Structures are given as C-alpha cells and as structure tokens.
Amino acid sequence: MTRHRNDTFTRRQMLKTAGAAGMLTLFPSIVPASVVGKHAPSNHINVGLIGMGRHADYSNLPAFLQSDDTHVVAVCDVDRWRLDSAKKKTDQYYGNSDCRAYTDWREVIARDDIDAVMISTTDQWHVPTALAAARAKKHICCEKPLSLSVAEGRLLADVAKKQGVVFRTDTECRSNAYMNKTARLVLNGYIGKVTRIEVGVPDTDNIAREGDPTPTPVPEELDYDMWVGPAPMKPYCVDRVHPRQSFGSSDDLNTRPGWLRCRGIGEGVILTWGAHLLDVAQLCNDTERTGPISVEGVGEYPQSKAALWDVLKTFNLHFEYANGVALDYQTGRDGYLRVEGEKGWIRAQYTGNARLLAHDESVLRLKFRDTDKPVIQRGDKEDFIYAIRNNCNTMIDAEVGHRTASLAHIGQIAIQRGKKLSWNPHAERFADDEQANEMLHRPYRKPWVFA
C-alpha cells in the first residue's frame, strides 16, 4: 500500500525522536522478526536497495533482511535477471510479495515511504545516485569506493553534510577486530609517536587475461545504456559488464565482474582494496578528514593498448603528511596494515592467515586504560542503523570516505604524471601542476551531471 506524504513524515519524525530520546542500544524496543512473522513493526526503517549484483546478493540484502530494525521495500537493477532474483529472495523471506522491483533507481528515491537506500551499483553510479538520494533526504549507505574522482567525491561530501542525512561509506574493514585493536593501540600511544604506515593490497587484477573487447549484442535482460550511465559509452561485451545467467545457475552473481577492471567504471584494486585498508591507515594517523601533503609513485598498466581491462596492475606509492608520517601503499600478495612508531610496530593481517602481530607480543595483551581514547567498533550495517536510530554520525561518513578514495585518486595521477606532486589537502588541489589538477575531474555523459 502506498503511503501518503503526511504519513511518511510522521513515521520519520517518530524514528528521529526515538533516537534523540537517548535510545543507546542498537535495537531499541523492536519486536524480532521471528516473533511478528517477518512483518516489520511500525517504527521500522524502510530500505530500498539499488544495484543487486554480487556484493548486494551475498552481503547487503541478507543484512537488511535479517535486521529487526529494517524492512526491504524496494529492489532495483538494470539487469532484469538480477532484479527478479533479488525480489524473489526478499518475498520468500517476508512471506509476501510486497517488495517492489524497479529498473530505474530514480523511482526508488522518489518514494516518500523509503527512509534509506543501500547503493551497491557499479562504481561510476555511486556519486550521482547518492547525490540524488541526499537531496531527497534519504539516509545513505553507499558501497566503497565512494567516487571515481576527487572533484565528485568533494561534491558528494558537501551535499551530504548540507542535507543533514546519515551517510555511511560501506567498508567492513574498520569493523574488523584486528583493525580496531590496531587503531586503539596506535591512537593511545602504545607504540609511541607514529612515524610510518604501510598498506598492502592483493594484486588480484594482475592476471594474464586482459579482457575480450569484441562487441556482442546487448542481452535482452539488460538496459545497457542505463548501466553505462555517466561513464563513457563503449560497445557492449560480457567482459566489460558481468557474466550472464547460465541455465539457472548462480554463476552470474558469484563471479567477479569484468567492470571492476575497466577504467571509467571501476579502477581496480588501488581503489577497491584501498577503500578498505587506507581508511584504517588514515584513522591510525588521525588524518581521516584531511590528507597528505605530497605523493609520488610508480605503477604498471596493461602494455597492450587494445586491452579491455586497463586498470593499474601493480603500483608502489609514497605519501607524506604534515605531521611527518610517511604512508607507503603497494600491491603484493596479501592485504595488510603495518603501523610503525617510535616504540615499536603493529601489523594487522587482513587476508590469508588473518592475525595481529607486533614487535613485542606483550603489547597485544595489554589491558586498555579507562582513560584511553575509544575507537568505535560496530558491524557495517549495524553502524548505519545505529546512526539513523540515534541521529548521529556513522564510523565512516561521506567526508571520511571521500578522503580515503582521494588517496587512490591522487596516487594514480602522480603515477600518470611521472613525478612527485605537492598536494594541498585543504584546497584539494596540486600546488605545482595544472595538468594534474585537470585530472581531478573525470568526463561524464549527459544527462548524468553531478552538479
């Protein structure tokens, strides 16, 4: 049943009032879904999911379905097979057919009864979709990386702040126990003043194949023009988009899609993996709302100009901060964060044999003092819901997500310019290279303008 505008405002006021009243627990006075037969209570948060691909299927949709605080009322995708799959799973969970399915995300945002959106689209859609949602006063949980350029990330962070919506840059890395403990130890001085930080990410895009660019007919189930959106239009091929449904199997949703390796749509591991670990690095350096003062580095792009998959394959970047800390960011076999201080070091291994290491293992067994600076640790969707309920900030808001993505953006620019660049983190411009400043923007197709 469609709600009238006045009904929606009343429910939103109730949600906000409940948060302001001091409800400090994550699930305040919410009847579990198992008790009410999976039908949402009156003060639930209505959520619309935009983009129903691999990550939405295995992580985002289940999280919102299983939360007692949220109710999934809409799903959206330009691939009708993925859309049908998402609606079917949602209907099966709730035991009804109330969830609406859309192929145009603007229709989701236009609904008065939707309080929040989960954006799990391809990367080029993150900013225009989130901008529209913010302007419509929807709370936003947006997949990382937040943006594909510094300029559009700056715009989104400013609009989200101006509109006063809850915004979460969705990466689970900061919620990881090892990462949280590393940040607590570092920020409370247990290894002394920080001198150097090292971040490694797996070179998952350093593969022999470079993608098949041979144009093929657009599948009947896909609105390819809408899928491309603000990115440069190029002929359709499977390796540019994602695998198609195959005889009723789930391969389409389990396979790593090719678009992650296509510049202008995704930017490869420098941005996707960097959004995880660089976020915690900036947290440990207490610079999550600013940035470095210089950047330099080298990297390897595919040698063939005909390669479809054209993102950076390997890279080695060096950033310097005003506080004297150096950050080295590179590809390798594993994902990890290592923080060095005047008294020792800590390394949080994120992939492979996940573990926490230190110069002295006794540091890892230390009991935190009551006076220590806390470092918030909540699950990713838990963090988003908590912020909505309590009318507060998330662990990784739009500003923080933008600053993290900016490290990868200016790193790529330094590699392409082939020299060390001075960076002004306040003005968010290079001090000595106008050509580099022009690269802070990216081309986009009308009508998908960001302003």
Summarize the structure.
By secondary structure, this protein is an alpha/beta fold. Helix content is about 30%, strand content about 20%.
Architecture overview:
With 451 residues, the chain is of the alpha/beta class. The protein has two domains: 5-173, NAD(P)-binding Rossmann-like Domain (Rossmann fold, 3-Layer(aba) Sandwich), CATH 3.40.50; 177-374 and 401-451, Dihydrodipicolinate Reductase, domain 2. The protein has 14 helices and 15 strands. The strands form two sheets. Strands 13-12-11-7-10-9-8-14-15 form a nine-stranded mixed beta sheet. Strands 3-2-1-4-5-6 form a six-stranded parallel beta sheet, with helices on both faces. A hairpin with a 5-residue loop joins strand 12 (344-349) and strand 13 (355-358). 47% of the residues are buried. The model is unreliable at 1-11 and 16-40 (pLDDT under 50).
List keywords for this structure.
about 450 residues; alpha/beta; Rossmann fold; 2 domains; 14 helices; disordered N terminus
CATH topology of the largest domain: Dihydrodipicolinate Reductase, domain 2
CATH architecture of the largest domain: 2-Layer Sandwich
Continuous helix count: 14
| Largest sheet, spatial ordering of strands | 13-12-11-7-10-9-8-14-15
Helix fraction by DSSP (H/I, runs of at least 4): 25-40%
Number of E strands = 15
Structural class by SSE content: alpha/beta
Query: Could you say which overall geometry the principal axes of the C-alpha atoms support?
Result: globular
Order of helices and strands: HEHEHEHEHEHEHEHHHHEEEEEEHHEEH
User: Mean pLDDT, rounded to whole units?
Assistant: 89
Question: How many domain modules?
Answer: 2
